Amino acid sequence: MNKYYFVLFILCAAQWASAQNTTVADIKWANQRANRIMFDQQDSALLYANRALQLATQIDSPKLVYDVERTIGGIYEAYKDFPNAKIHYKNAIDIAHARLSKHLLFIVYTDWAIVHKKLGQYDIAREYHQRTIDEAEKIGDWEMVEEGYHGLGTMHSMMSNFDKSIEVYYKSIKAAEKWGNTEGVVITEQNISNIYMKAKNYDMALKNIEKTYKMALKLGDSMRIAAVLKIYGNINMAMGDFTAALEHHSEAKNIIEKKSNKAKLAESYLALGEIQMNLKNYPQAQAHFDTCKTFTTFLHNYAHADLYQKQGKLYQVQNQHERAIAAFVQSLKLTDSFGFKEIARDNHLALTTLFTAKKDFSTAIQHATAANQLSAELFEEKNQKNMTEAQFKFDSEKRNLQIEAQKKELSQATLFRWLLLGGLAILSVLLVFTWRQMKEKQKAKERTEFIIRELHHRVKNNMQTVASMM
Asked: What pLDDT sits at residue 389?
C-alpha cells in the first residue's frame, strides 16, 4: 500500500513539474513575442505581455514577473504613455530590490532613467544613472558602470551639451575596457562620431569614424562594421559629399543583405534613396524607395512615415504632383497616428505648395493652417525643452559650485587642523626642550651645591688636622 502511494506521489510530482515547465515556457514565449512586435503591433504586444504577467504571478516567479513588467513598461514607452510605463518600471524596481540581484536592479534603473529623459526630467535621469554608477562600482559590476556612463552621455547629447557628452562617453569606454566589452567600446566611439557630426565638427567626426571603422574591422562583427559604415555615410551626407556617402551606405547594404536582416536592409534602402535623390539620380532613388517599401513591415513607424515623405519629395521635384500628394497624405496618416510632429509639419507645408499650384486654395489653406499650428506647438515644445535644459544646467552649475564650496571648506578645515596639530607639535617640542633645560640647570645647581659642601667638609677636616698638629 505504501508503495502504491509512493508511486502516485512520484507521478503527481512529475505531472506538476511538467506543468510548471510548460507554464514557464509559455511565459517566456509570450514575453518574447510581445518584445518583437511592440513597435508595430502595440495592442497585440500588450495582450501577450499581460497574459505572461498573469501566468508569472500565478507561479510566483520573481524573475519572470520582473522580465514581463519591463516588457510592459517598454510597450507603454513606445506608445509614449510614460505614466503607465513608469508604473511598470517601478514594479520591476521593487521586485528587483526585494528579491533579485543588484545587476537586475541596475538594468531597470536604466529603463527608469530613460523614461525621465524623454519627459525632460533630467535631474531624475541623472540621479538614477549616477546611482547605478556608484553602486555598481562598489561591487565591481563594470558592465553596469559602463551602462550608467553611457546613459549620462546620451542625456547630455540630447541637451546638445556635446563637450560634456563626449567626456562622459570616454568614461563609459574605460568601464567597457575593464570588463572586456570591445563591442561596447566600438558602439560608444560611434556615438562620439555622431556627436561631432551634430556639433558640425566634421574634421573630428571623420577622424573618429575612421578610427572606429578600423576597430570594427578588428572586432570582426560584420553587422557592427555595417553600422559604422552607415554612420560614416551619414557624416559624408552632412558634409554634402554624396558620392562618398553612396559608397559607404552601399557597402553597408551589401553586408546587411548577406545577413538577411530585413529591418536594417529597409533602413539602408531608405538612406540610399535619399542619397540618389540628392545626386539627382531620380530613377535609382525611386528604385531604392520601392525596394524599401517591400520591407515596410520591418520598419519602425517613424522611418515608415519618413519613407513616404521622401517619396513625396521625389515625385514633387519630378513634377508628378498627384503622386506626390498621395505620398504626403500617406505619410500624414502615420504621423497622425504616432505624433511625429516635425514630419507632419513638413508634409502639410509640401501639400500647401502642391494644392496652391493646383489652385485648390481652400485645401491649401487647410494645410497651411495645420502647418502653422504644428510649427507653433514645436516652437513651444522647443522653448519648454530649452527652459528645462537651462534650468538643469543652472542647477548643475549651482550644485557644482556648492560641491566646490564644500570642498574648499573641507580643504580649509583640513589645513586649519594640520596647522593646529603642527602648532601643538612645535609647542610640545618647545615644552620638552624647556623642561629638559630646567632639569639640566637643576642638576647643575645640585652638583655645584654638592661640590661646595664637599669643599667645606674637606676644609673643615683640614683645619681640624692642622689644629691637632699644633
From this structure: 59
The CB-side HSE value for 53 (13 A sphere, CA atoms) comes to: 17
The three cell numbers locating residue 214: 578600423
Query: 358 versus 419: which is more confidently predicted?
Result: 358
Average of per-residue pLDDT across 60-81: 92
Q: What is the tens place of the pLDDT at every residue in 17-50? A: 444 456 888 889 999 999 888 877 888 899 999 9
3-state secondary structure 222-263: HHHHHHHHHHHHHHHHHCCCHHHHHHHHHHHHHHHHHHCCHH
Q: Which of 150, 128, 148, 127 is nearest to 137 (CA)?
A: 148
Tell me the CA distances in angstroms from 104 to 1, 144, 148, 356, one per residue in order. 49, 10, 13, 57
